[in-house]
Amino acid sequence: MTILAVHVRALMPSESDDVRVWLVERDYNNRDIIVPTYATPDGTRAFRRELAPRAIDLDSVTATEDVSLDDLSSVGFDEPVQ
Fold first, then answer.
1. What does the alpha-carbon distance between residue 28 and residue 48 come to, in Å, rounded to a whole number?
2. Res 2: pLDDT
3. From CA 40, how far away is CA 48, in angstroms rounded?
4. Residue 72 CA: distances (Å) to CA of 4, 55, 58, 80
5. How far apart are CA 82 and CA 77, in angstroms?
6. What pLDDT does residue 15 have?
7. What are the structural domain ranges in the chain?
8. Other C-beta atoms lying within 10 Å of the C-beta of residue 21
9. Checking phi first, is residue 64 left (phi over 0); if not, alpha (psi -120 to 50) or beta?
10. Could you report the per-residue pLDDT of 36-72, keeping only the tens digit for each?
11. How many angstroms separate the CA atoms of 82 and 22, rounded?
12. Cα–Cα distance for residue pair 61/55, rounded to 1 Å
């Protein structure tokens, strides 16, 4: 079992600046573009992308994504969290 764990770890991306984000919202805009929004577990940063409906089969929307810190934006809150 230890050997398997070593092999799996070797196949995983080693990018230390990648962050796991979770799908929190999926919208459609007036051009029928699908806009999934992912957020960090603490909710302070978000990642959005736009997908054409016909591209959804090629690039599916998943529950999680690993994205670069550079691709995350800060989430502004109207009121402070108490």
1. 12
2. 34
3. 12
4. 33, 22, 23, 21
5. 12
6. 53
7. 15-74
8. 20
9. beta
10. 999 999 999 999 989 887 776 666 788 999 999 999 9
11. 23
12. 10
Q: What does 5-47 look like in DSSP terms, one character per residue? A: HHHHHHHS---TTEEEEEEEEEEE-TT--EEEEEE-TTSSEEE
Q: Are 29 and 42 in contact (CB under 8 A)?
A: no
The separation between the first and the last C-alpha atoms of the chain, rounded to the nearest angstrom, is 45
Q: How many CB atoms lie within 10 A of CB 36?
A: 19
Query: For residue 53, what pLDDT is reported?
Result: 79
Q: What is the largest CA-CA distance in the chain?
A: 51
Asked whether residue 26 carries a pLDDT value surpassing 80, the answer given is yes
Average pLDDT, the chain: 76
